[in-house]
Amino acid sequence: MVNFSVDKNKTTPLYIQIFNQFKKYIENGSIPPGYKLPTIRSLAKELGVNNVTVINAYRLLEANGYIEKRVGSGTYVSETVRQSEMPIEDIKALEHGQILVNKNMINFSSSSPNPELFPVEDFKVIINKVLERDGGYAFEYQDTKGYMPLRKVIAEFIKKDEVSIDYEDVQIISGGQQGIDVVSKALINFGDCVFVESPTYSWAIASFKSRGAEIVDIELENDGINVYMLEEKLKIFKPKLIYTMPVFQNPTGISYSVEKMKKLIEIAYKYDTYIVEDDFSNELNFSNNKHLPLKAYDKYDRVIYIKSFSKIYMPGLRLGFILSPKNLINSFAEAKYVTDLSTSGLMQRAFEIYLKEGMWKKHVEVFKNTMKNRFDEMKRLLADNSYFEINIPDGGFYFWIKLKENISSKMIYLKCIERNVSIVPGSIFFSNKIDDSHIRLSYASCEVDKIRKGILTIEEVIKDIDDAGNSEYIPIV
Fold first, then answer.
1. What is the pLDDT of residue 441?
2. With CB atoms 3.0 to 4.6 Å apart as the test, which of 54, 92, 282, 469 could cross-link to 247 if both were Cys?
């Protein structure tokens, strides 16, 4: 039916190459639901690999819901896998988290704010201060762990969130994504297991998989990760990490309850694993509810806290930090060193002044007010809609929308693109890419008037699709 091959010269593990090929062919319909897979021995012989390689590929396909074993019969493509109804080029883009956006679109996809909101004038001032004070030294390589005065300021800065640490525990990074990559390089080896919330940030999954990790999904509830399911999975697997976003989670906007945060830390301690906490927007709390980071409750030193300043400050500057458990500090420093030696010294020196002189706090107040206006308008427009259900978050950048049963998020995505509105289909945020019942809307890049126009367009698209009964779309086979 289809041709499989492996390239032993590639750095991608052979079993991942096999997994990716099966995944592609299953999703585009070339291999249909119910199709019986070759035996492990026959496929291994055909590809010139050992049986263990195929076993690992099949195991990963099963863990991600693509195949199922039938006792005494063999291994089959799962009947529950929905084949994609999108063009191949769009499938490839979505698999890599790439959403079609042009400058004239109403952009509900991006998490990056409008450039007009960036503190450019403040940045000019602090860059001049750094150059006048430090001259050419501003362009020297910094210590791999980061510019010491900035690390000390961060140790003070984080006290606002009731986190008390020594500046020696701070590792400066070039944005949150690099933080995830640094943690992955330091801790994950081929074949290791990583637990993730389901749904979760797609590029985190990509980072873990690039290290050869197997991904295990843990259901996300309205108050945080399903701790019962988590503990049951921990009895079977021994993950290196549990990846979480406990405050204003991406994509759902959910924030963990204090009780669930404490329980999660207790479980991590009991089963001797670490929690990665990814925080990029906890400043954007629009409610009266207090949302401290998970790290604030970390009495066992089990939380690896990754904080990014990029989205709220200026995304292109790429700046953040890791708060590390004591026994992992050197491992993260080594992983950072082999990645890029150190984060830009000029940016670190500038941001140290920015934090120390209170300019960050001033910027956040203005930025938060703008985002709150957008949040309120989107919430108002989405309320009481018969085509979907929404979870109202306390803050952050996102609304997570559950569609009526007969409406496809991928169809909405394509039809919205045609009408110059960009959204994100929910499948991107699930490791198996199967979900087709959610969309994520971000207001980060949209002024209030565009939010009104965009939501109206989405409602018209959903109505058209619902009325048509999806009849004009034919799956690729």
1. 96
2. 282
